[in-house]
Amino acid sequence: MFRRIVFLIAGLACLVASTPRAQAHPHVWVTMTSELLYAPDGSVTGVRHAWTFDDMFSAFATQGLEQKTKGQFAREELAPLAKVNVESLQEYAYFTYVKVNGKRQKDALSDPVDYYLEYDPKEAVLTLHFTLPFKTPLKAKALDVEVYDPDFFIDFAFAEKDQVRLINAPAQCSVSVAKPHDDFFSAAVRLDKSMAWEANAGMGANFANRVSVTCP
């Protein structure tokens, strides 16, 4: 149990087990950017995420880790932590959900590849980079990729800049980003990490971040 506590997303499993679903509220804040990867034939082949964790959780996750240089962590030093992270994320479907032409596609994505953790010594935060390949590359007129935690233990939000990029996509394709609407809580409340509120199980879908790609 201790091993699960000390690693990023894995730590949430302990919080979920000890906290009633009716008391759901964020314990971790993630700022993200995403890329959709395309093959030469115009089919989408994967989703590449970069998730930056809040400073408090980054400090919690790196506590006790060995480091050659004080205040810094090399990618190699974080490799075991990255491995446990992506393995733990499998249980939560990587918080990434796909719709093709408006229909939800279950198990559309494979396990992560090209994953690693990066540490920013200036901001003292960790960023998890990983790519989720599509099990079968696909072409679609409408593709939606949503990122959210159904139980709202993690609050995902797009970065202010470079939120989403299409890599090698057909020129006719366009992308848009839909951020969550704060219908339940004000922006000030959501940003206050010391606040806790009651929430219904599954309410995290109300705060889904959606990437929508349309192609002719």
Quickly list its features.
216 residues, alpha+beta, 5 helices, disordered N terminus
Notes on the protein architecture:
There is one protein chain. By secondary structure, this protein is of the alpha+beta class. It has one domain (2-214). The protein is 19% helix and 36% strand. It is built from 5 helices and 11 strands, in the order ααββααββββββββαβ. Strand 1 and strand 2 (44-53) form a beta hairpin. The longest helix has 15 residues, at 75-89. The protein is globular, with a radius of gyration of 18 Å. The model is unreliable at 1-24 and 183-201 (pLDDT under 50).
Domain module tally: 1
Oligomerization status of the protein chains = single chain
Helical content stands at: 10-25%
The arrangement of helices and strands along the chain is: HHEEHHEEEEEEEEHE
What proportion strand? 35-45%
Structural shape:
globular
The description of the largest β-sheet is: 6 strands, mixed
Poorly predicted ranges: 1-24, 183-201
| Class computed from helices, strands and strand pairing | alpha+beta
Computed over alpha carbons, the radius of gyration is 18 Å
Mean pLDDT: 82
Number of helices: 5
Distance between the termini: 50 Å
